[in-house]
Each structure stands twice: as C-alpha cells, then as structure tokens.
Amino acid sequence: MTQALLDALNHNQFLSGGLSLMVVGAAVALLRKVPGQLWEFLQRRLTITVEVPDRDPAFRWLQVWLALQPYASRARDLSLSTTWVPAGAESDSAVVFDPDDSAATGASSRVRFLLSPAPGVHLMFYRGRIVVLHRSRRDLQNGNSRTFQENLSLRVLGGSRALVEQLLEEARRLACPKSPGVSVLTSRYESWETTSWQPRRPLESLVLADGTLEDLLADLKSFYESREWYVRRGIPHRRGYLLHGPPGNGKTTLVLAAAGELNLSVAVLSLSNRVLSDDALRGLVDALPPATLLLIEDVDCVFKTERATSDQTGVTLSGLLNALDGVSSREGRVLFLTTNHPERLDPALVRPGRVDRRVELPNATPDQGRRLYLWFYQGCGIAAEELESLARLFAGQVPPGKVCMAAIQEHLLRHRGAPEAAAHEVDFGDSPRDPSRGEAPSPMMAARDA
Ligand SMILES: Nc1ncnc2c1ncn2[C@@H]1O[C@H](COP(=O)(O)OP(=O)(O)OP(=O)(O)O)[C@@H](O)[C@H]1O
Which residue range or ranges hold the AAA+ ATPase domain (predicted)? Predict the structure, then answer.
C-alpha cells in the first residue's frame, strides 16, 4: 500500500509538486515565527519585568523615583501629580517647589510638583542597565464619575530580582518622609493610597483624663506583641476600640497620636459614601496594609436598618459586620470606631470581639484645662510658680464637663504669647456644646465638621 502511494507520487507531478509546496510553506511559516520566539525567549531570559498597579503603594514611590531620574528632566511628555509637603516632613526628594511667598508667609506646607514620564513607552538607565518603562492608563466608570487606573511596567535588561528590589527600596526611601510621622491612607476604589503625612504629635500635647492615653498605648502594644498567644488559642488576632464622647475632645487626635507613638499608619474610612458598596468595603478591609490602624469615624451617622442602605451610604450594617469579621480580614487588624452617640449604635456592631474596649473622652475637666494651659505656655519666660498659679486661675474658670478640649485650645490659641490675658479674659465662645444633650454646636465646630 505504501509502495503504491510512493509510486503514485513519483509518477504524478501534480501530486508531488503540491506536496513539496506544502512542506516548503510549512517550513517557511515555522521559520517566520522563529525570530519572534527567539526574541521572546531572550527577553524572558535576559530581562526582568515588574508590573506596578496604581493601587499599590509602590506606584507612588516609583512616581517620585521617576521624577528624579535624569530622563525626566529631558522628557517632553510628562504627567503631573501635585502634593503638599507639610513643614517638617523632610524627604530626600529634590522635587519640592518652594515659592518665595511661602517663606514670607511662613506657610506650613510646600507644594510638590511630581513630573514623571507620561503614559507611553520610555527608555532610561538604572545602574548601567537599560530600563524600558511602559506606563498605561485605562478609563474607568465609577458610579456617576469617570476616572482612570494606571499601571507601570518596568523591564530591566540584564537585570536581576535583587536589582529590582534595590530600585524599589530606593524609590521608597526617596518618597517617604525622613522625619517620624504618621502616613494617613484613604480609600480609592478597593485599595488604599497614602494621601497625607502628619508629623508625630508629642504625647504630652494630648491632655486626657489621667491614665487614658497610657492604658490605650499599653493595650495596643500588648496586642501587637501577643500574636502567638492569639494563634495558639485559636482566637482571631484582631482588636477593636470604640472612642466616644462629645465632639472636639480628641478622638481622632488620640488615634493619630497612638499611631505616631507605635510607628503605625492610619487608614481613614468614611462610610458616608453612596458609591461605597458592601463588596467594596470588604475588599478594602481585606486589603488593609500591615501595621495600619483602621479608623472609621462617626459610625452612628450612616445606618438606618441592618440590611438597607440609606441616602448617606451604599453600605449596609450587615455588610460592615461581614467586612470586619471576614475570614480574609487581615490578622493583626486594629479597628477604631468613633462616635458622638454610642447609645445609637447597633449592639451587634459593638459586641465583644468587634469592640473589645470602649474609651470615653468626655468634655474637659478643670484639671485638663490646667494641664493644657501649662503645655501651651511652658518656656514662655514666666517663672514656674507664677505660671502654675495662672494655670490654676484659668482652670477655676473651666466649667466641669461643659466645654470641649478643642474650645479650650481655641481660646489659648487666641491668646498665644499672652498667658496673663488667657487666664484673666476667659471666653470659650459658644460652649457648652454637647450635641448628645441637644445643644447646638458652635460656629467653630460646625465649620470644622463641615
Ligand atoms: N484632649 C485633648 N488634648 C489636647 N488637644 C485636644 C484634645 N482634644 C481635642 N484637642 C484638640 O481639638 C482639636 C479637635 O480634636 P479631634 O478632632 O481629635 O476631636 P474629635 O473628638 O475627634 O472630634 P469629632 O467628634 O468632631 O471628630 C484638635 O486640634 C486637637 O488638637
């Protein structure tokens, strides 16, 4: 049979010609693919590529790094991202634009224009290696608003993994302020991004009832140190705090001060957001970076019923509970809830396991007034005894439980550099102002809340 087929091929020139054409065609098609495949193989072998989506903190670091590369100063296609650098937040970054008038006015922050290569392909060098940067942008529809998502792809020719890690570490050091402080993260879609940086607040500047701050710090430290203990006993390693009390008595400040003391970041989440859904909230809680306190403010304001969304938020109470309890929720997660109305909170939200400790920050006592006064005027040139007696005079005019600490701070600020006037001409504006007792907030608090 084979012999018959070969004979037929030998004697039929159409058949043999067609077959030869087929073989040659297949060989050419195969050869045409070879350079491409060879190139891909070489690329895989000789280059290393790292993809950085904009929801990753390294995206921002790389933007700073790129802005500082010699390539960026020559590039003609640039992308701008503007940030404000608070005074004191020193970084190695040379991309700070310090307008002359900011020095004249003593402005407390400087504007920083980050000009990094625009979307497209760019070629640059890093430690003698060629780096191909591919920056891409994709339009997104988020509820009624349109926005975009970006991606950086860095391909280092002849690079190694160690080299990429070195580059990323360099970028991180350039982008992060050198002085100690707290990074504040806010949500963007289902991820977190660092949106501001607060200098570390001296603990003495936060004047609370005796022991409140020390207890909270000790509790937090012991929580972070006892991971093994939780794991051995099969208890989820999470902790929740409820800070409650009238506005302006340091709930937010306490969280920032604790974060500064323990070298943590703070992720601030506002539930008053129609676009935020239960799923997005869950994604956010799951994506919380390590060593970050999750702060959800004014939790009493948003929910109507357990399963329904209100006109203030797209999140339901059961959605929030699921997000906080989710199995993939980060181990070691610390949650701070703040409220002016603890009595309005659903018992399920504050049950043990979700809220382990409640800390009340009530309106000021005269002694808190005295201590804040002393903190304000220390080193002002008045002898210690005289300052103490002025502080006592001042404290005697603080009506117990009637004014908030923010109002006292406001009064002292009005008399900055004038301790005698601050003690003799006491005026707390519209205080008392405890909304839980149905009193109207002062213009200052209303403006702050707005
Ligand atoms: N106990 C305190 N000691 C020193 N300063 C305080 C204290 N409480 C509040 N302040 C000052 O008052 C201002 C407002 O404080 P903060 O925002 O922390 O209050 P809050 O309780 O979170 O208010 P709200 O409930 O309105 O969010 C801050 O500038 C802070 O410096």
Answer: 237-365
321: domain CATH number is 3.40.50.300
- Average pLDDT for the chain: 82
In ligand 1, which atom is closest to the CA atom of 208? 1
For 36-73, write each residue's pLDDT tens digit.
887 777 777 788 999 999 878 788 889 989 998 888 88
User: Residue 435's CB: how many other CB atoms inside 10 A?
Assistant: 14
- What domain range includes position 437? 366-449
Q: Shortest CA distance to 317 belongs to which of 301, 339, 330?
A: 301
pLDDT at 401 over 90: yes
Task: Report which protein residue has its CA nearest ligand 1's atom 4.
Answer: 206
State how far the Cα of 69 lies from the Cα of 74, in Å rounded to an integer. 9
263: left (phi over 0), alpha (psi -120 to 50) or beta: left
* Number of neighbouring beta carbons within 10 Å of residue 150: 16
Same domain, 75 and 167: yes
Order of strands, sheet of 145-157, starting from the edge strand that comes earlier in the sequence: 47-53, 145-157, 129-142, 120-126
Dihedral of the CA atoms 284, 286, 287, 291 (nearest 10)?
110
Note whether 353 and 372 are same-domain residues. no
Probe target for ligand 1 pocket from 207, 216, 249, 375, with the most ligand atoms within 8 Å of CB? 249
Residue type (1 letter), 234: G
Q: Where are the beta strands (DSSP E) in 129-180?
A: 129-142, 145-157
Q: Tell me how many degrees the CA angle 248-249-252 measures, rounded to the nearest 5.
A: 80
Whether 259 contacts 217, CB under 8 Å: no
Q: What is the pLDDT of residues 153-169, one digit of tens each?
A: 999 988 788 999 999 99
Q: What is the pLDDT of residues 254-286, one digit of tens each?
A: 999 999 999 999 999 988 877 788 888 888 888
Distance from C-alpha of 251 to C-alpha of 340, rounded to nearest angstrom: 10
- Indicate whether 9 belongs to any domain: no
Residue nearest to atom 17 of ligand 1 (CA): 252
